[in-house]
Every structure is written in C-alpha cells, then in structure tokens.
Amino acid sequence: SDLNFLTQNTAYLVGICGIVGLLIAAARMMWSQRAEPAREALAGLLRLVVVQGCAVSAIGLLSAAGDSLSTSIMNNATAMAGTGSQSLGQISMSAVGSATLVIVLSGLAIIAFFVQLVLLIVRAGLLVLLAGTLPLSAAASMTPVGNSWFRKNVGWLLAFLLFKPVAALVYGAAILSVTNSADITGEITGIVLVALATLTLPALMRMVAPMVSAIGNISAASAVGMVAGVASGAAAIVATGGAAVPMVAGSLGRQGGNLGS
C-alpha cells in the first residue's frame, strides 16, 4: 500500500535523523552544561520507539473506526428523519415560498457539497502522507525544531481522523433540521449547517493542536521522570555493592515466617 511504501522508503531517513538528533543533543549539552538537551533526546527516543511499534497500526484502526462511526451517524439521522420526509437535497418550494431564494439556497448547498467532497479527497491523501512521515518526525523530535514538527504532525493526524465523524454529526443535524421543519427557518438552518460542515476541518486543527502540545509536554516529562527514577534506583543498588538485595530478601523471609506461624 501507499503507507507501506512511504515507511519503507523513509526508514533510512529515520535512522539518519535519530543519529543527527543525538549528536545535536550531545553538542547542546556540552555547550550549555545542562541536562535539558539529554532529557529532550531521551523523550524523542521514547516517541520513536512508540511510533515505530504501534502508531501506524493504531492510525489504521482509528481511521476504520471513524468511517464506521460516520456511516452509523448518517444512517441513524436518515432513519430518524423518516422515509416519507424530504431529503436534504430537496428544498421545498412551499416552505421557502420564493423561487429566487430556492435557487440561492440550492446553489449554496451544491457549493458546500462540492467543497466537502474535495476536503474528503484531500483528507484521504494527507492522512496517508502524515502517517507515513510520522516515524520521521518522531526521530527528529529529539531537537526543539523536530519536536514542534512532531506535535504538528500528530495534531493534523488527529484532526483528519476526527473530521469525518464530526462532519457526519453536522450533516445529521442538517438532515433533521430540514425534515422536521415545514417553514423557511428549517430550510435555511439545514443549508447553513451544510456550509458549516466544510469548516469543521480547520476548526479541529486549531482546537487539537494546542491539546496535543500540552499532552506532549506532560507525557514527555512523565516518561523522562520514570526512566530517571529507575536509573537512579539501579545506580543506588550498584553503589551499595548489592547490599540492598540481601536486606530486601531478609525482610521478605521474615514476613514469610510470620505468615507461616
């Protein structure tokens, strides 16, 4: 598939970006005499391991789940509207009352449907491209510039994955608005909702990106803290010459004897 083609042909770039990121982190640490570049490099390595291990499969599953959810939402909206009701594409002349307004609303609906079709085609292509380049951005996230690229990549991926279900919700609301109203208010509300459905993608991108940035900071700090805690604990055991191990074993033995008695 296209996704496998991208991941296979960018594998060597992932390795190069990882090595360059580590070298840059080492140079920054030597220059600043601080451990912050090392923590950023470690967080980038953890991101790369997670992305290489399960991200591509998870994106495929989330995409399939979003498509299934979108189909279910539209089916439920159509069922609630009833088989005898007018569809979203059939604007009632009796409800609107003006031939000119019918033409304007129909033209607006056609333009909105066409824009939505283009957005869905663009979504399908960019979703594959973003998923294929996600390991590359994860390898580059060991540096501040690469970290910004990785967060934008993840934010755009989530926005594209959520776009279809959210648009389906808006279309479902438009269908119910048109079919459950017999006056011009329902007709206009339905067409406006169809037009607003084309704005869900940029709205999601503006909403998801800050959330991904905040979550990325928390997860990176937590992961680095966990690894640092394990490393410091191991170093303490080694520094004491393994004395902690017999002490713990003796404590466990005494507890076992108490339980046995």
Number of strands: 0
Strand fraction equals under 5%
Which structural class do the helices and strands define?
Answer: mainly alpha
Radius of gyration (CA) equals 28 Å
Give the low-pLDDT segments: 218-261
How far is the N terminus from the C terminus?
65 Å
What is the helix content? over 70%
Number of contiguous helices:
9
Q: How would the global form be characterised?
A: elongated
Reading the helices and strands in chain order gives: HHHHHHHHH
Mean pLDDT: 73
Note the main sheet.
Answer: none
Structure description:
This protein is an all-alpha fold. Mean pLDDT is 73; it is low at 218-261. Helix 3 (36-81) packs parallel to helix 6. Helices cover 88% and strands 0% of the residues. The chain contains nine helices and no strands. The chain starts with a helix and ends with a helix.
In terms of topology, how is this protein built?
Blueprint: H1 2-9, H2 11-32, H3 36-81, H4 93-96, H5 99-140, H6 144-179, H7 184-197, H8 200-239, H9 244-260
Brief summary of the model shown:
The chain is mostly helical. The protein contains nine helices and no strands.
